[in-house]
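Lecture notes, unit on binding sites. The following record was shown on slide 14. It pairs a sequence with 2-phosphoglycolic acid.
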Amino acid sequence: MRKKLIAGNWKMNKTANETKEFFEELKKYDLNKDVNMVICPPFSSLDRAVNAAKDIGVAIGAQNMSDQESGAFTGEISANMLLDLGVEYVILGHSERREIFNEQDGYINSKVRYAIEKNLIPILCIGETLEEREADGHFDKVKSQIEKDFENISAEDAIKVIIAYEPIWAIGTGKTATAKDASEMCHFIREEIKKMYNDEVANNISILYGGSVKPANVNELMNAPDIDGALVGGASLKAEDYSKLVNF
Ligand code: PGA
C-alpha cells in the first residue's frame, strides 16, 4: 500500500529564521500520522529546518543538487553536503530548473542516478507546457521525459524514485489540473513505468501531482486513483495551510 506524501517546495522563499518560525507554528497542529511529510526549503535554511522538524516527523529535502562528488563547481551543492545536514530528499528536474536554468533530461538523469547512489530520495518532476497540452502532445512529452530521465536506472533503483507530475501551466498560476486530468496522467505514467520495468515497480512507485494544490482542492486530488500525494509550492509556505494539506 502506497502511503500518501505531502511535499512542500518553498522555492526561493524564507530565511533560516522564518524557517524556524514555520516549524514552531506547525508544532501546534495535529498532523495526520498516516501521511509522509517533506519540506524542501532553500539551501541556506536546510540546517535549521532539519533541527526544527525532527520532533514533528517532517523530513527535509533540498530543491536541487549537483551530479558531481566535489570540486570546482562554483555555486553547486553536493549530495554529501546534504547528507551531512540530515537531508533525506532532493527535488530534481523541477520545471523552473528546466526552463530558467536550461537543465536537460540527460543532466537530470545523471542527477537522479547520483541521488540514488547516495541514498537520497529523488523527487523527479516532469510535465508538459500549455502549448504541448493544447496541441495534444502532453502524453508524448511526459513519456519522453520518463524514458530519458530513467535511462540506465535498474528496476531495483527505479522503485526508489518519487515522480511528481507537474503540468507547467498549473504551476503558480492558480490553475489546477482537474482531479480527472491529473489522475489520468498519473495513471499513464504508472503504465509507462510498467512497460519500462514491471508490475512491482509500477505498483509501488509513488506518483505525486503538483501545480496550484491548495487546502481547497487537495482532498479531491488525493482521493483520485493513482495520485499518491502532492508537491506544493505557494500553499506550503504557511504552517496552517500546510497542516490543512497534510490533514486533507
Ligand atoms: P505551486 O508550485 O503549488 O505554487 O503551483 C508547485 C511547484 O512548483 O512545485
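Take-home: Residues 9, 166, 171-172, 210-213, 231-235 surround 2-phosphoglycolic acid (CB under 6 Å).
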